[in-house]
Amino acid sequence: MEKSILHFNDVCVGVFDKLIAEFYKTPTDIAGFVSNITEELHRWGIMLIQETLEGMDQMIRESGKWKSSWVIEKQPKEPNKKLTTSLGTVCFRKTLFTNKKTGEMCYLLDRIMGIEKHERITEDAIAKLLEEAVQTSYRRGGEAASIMDVLTKQTVKNIIHDLDFPQGWSKPKEKKIVDYLYIEADEDHISLQYRDKKGDLTKSPKGRKNNGAITKLIYVHEGIAPDAPMSKRHHLINPHFFSRTAQGCSNEELWDTVYRYLDENYDLEKVKKVYVSSDGGGWIVGGMRRIAGVIHLLDQYHLEEHLSSLADHMLDDAAEVRAELHRILCKGTRQAFIEYVWELQGYLSELDKVKRFEESRDYILKNWSAAKYRLKKTDGVVGSSTEGHVSHVLSSRMSTAALGWSLKGADKMAQLRAYYLNGGDMLELTRYQKEEMPVAVGGEYQDYISPRRIIKKSKDADHDLNRYYDRAQAHLSIDVKKKLYFQSHIWTDI
User: Fold this and answer.
1) I need a labelling partner for 330 at 20 to 30 A (CA). Which of 31, 41, 71, 313 fits?
2) pLDDT at 476 over 70
3) What is the CA radius of gyration of the chain?
């Protein structure tokens, strides 16, 4: 750190003085003044990180702990490692050691820091990348990862394709007690560039490419509430989202995950009713059967769309016809509905509209009970918002623009969107990738130490040095403290 501090005093302060003088000459250019100050601070920050990492490597070499098991294989004179951080790319030197017993070669600094052999991007940069890519694009994710450097779209894609997601969630100390629970489900249709590898899309006999895929969305909530008193806008109460592609996860597995979430977060025995709102799609109806006692509600948007299809050809009388269709659905019978619709069909003047009319009729008859429940709006029934949420959660990122996905990329992005909207922390997700990494074959020296274990170790280690950290802080210099802190890792991890 001494070199970087001296550099700051000898170089940076002089640069700042010059920049300040220039700003006094042209006080209208505050943007240029701020930009130049920021750039200089960034360069100094990179130097500080480099010096800190090389200082840690030097402390490892000077420690006697490694000598019983390791020998120095190579101590470079020039930087031999690059790490892209959220600040910029840091180049630094690190020492290569060889294990006396196994012959394993290892950079002990990497082991203590929790850096994998071929890791080139730090967790903070990956978290920044994910925060942007989940909202906009791979390109912008690469631009956001580091202030002073840009990662390629291919790098961003590779990182997202390799993501693993936690299979659980934060559980309450006590299960919630609510009267009603709501499940809403719908799907988004996306376009594929390829399925598993480029060039594998097939064509139908009519020449149409098999480049379509479905992304499923399910979300659970406790009802709706106004955004503010007297507001006409509403929001969902405690929503939780689940999203996968049809190929990335079986329908049974997806719905079982939803049920597990309900069971672990709510006292289901005290819930009066669980409502499922949907358009009646087969994957949704099939999944509902895995959750006992649910009541199906036809999605408001699709119901009104098909009712309009039955009434619009009545022109000036269309509003009155829709009202009658609503009345029959609420209080009438299937037979009454069939007879009234048959009468309406007699007024169709264009033959090309007959097919659409019959499809709407059959759709409502197929979902008769769900349509009746929707229009009655009793016993806790609230409006549905599946179309809006599909647009917000999936379409806005995955299908509105002319995007093309692979099956794997679409499934990972669907999960990432759900994780993001559930309030997931991207840095925690990045660290999770190393959490479950197994011990490699070959003995204790290949054990991987995850960053979370290291952080916990620095707080909980039983080594004698740790017992005196807090007591020593009032008396020891910063340099001595650094050695005490880092020595605990050296003695624990190598």
Assistant:
1) 313
2) no
3) 31
